[in-house]
Each structure stands twice: as C-alpha cells, then as structure tokens.
Hints:
globular; 50% helix; Non-ribosomal Peptide Synthetase Peptidyl Carrier Protein, Chain A; mainly alpha
Amino acid sequence: MMVIVEVSQILAEVLQLPGGGENLQENSPLLGAIPEFDSMAVVSVLTALEDSYGFFVDDDEIDAEIFETVGSLAGFVEQKLNDQ
C-alpha cells in the first residue's frame, strides 16, 4: 500500500474523521484546516506513525511544515523509512 494512503488512514483514525481518510488528498491542508488537528492530535498522530512504521521521531525533527498537508506528512514518513 502507498504511504500516502496509509498516512491518510492513520490521520482519519486518530482524528476520527468520517470516510476513513477517503476525502484526504495529497494537497489536503492539516494544521489550521482541520479543527480536530490540534497539538494533542499531533502527538497522537506521531505515536500512531511510530507504532505503524517502527521508527522513532526525535523532538528536534518536529516542525510545523511537516503537518502543512497530507503530502508533506507522507513525505516525512517516507524520509524516515528511507533513513532506517
């Protein structure tokens, strides 16, 4: 399965979005656009990504740009997977 699809599903599950992430596209905005996506949700999403993919995110890696869009978050995940 493509990383962007998996990331969309994780976002939908953590944020309890209707449709299971089907409405999330690569350019779908996250921070500031989805009311459920607050600072606590960021932590929950990162934890879910770490659990799903088996990587660890250091605090100094976290940047608001990562959470601008679904695509930027998926790109971050792909980079972490390539670094393993």
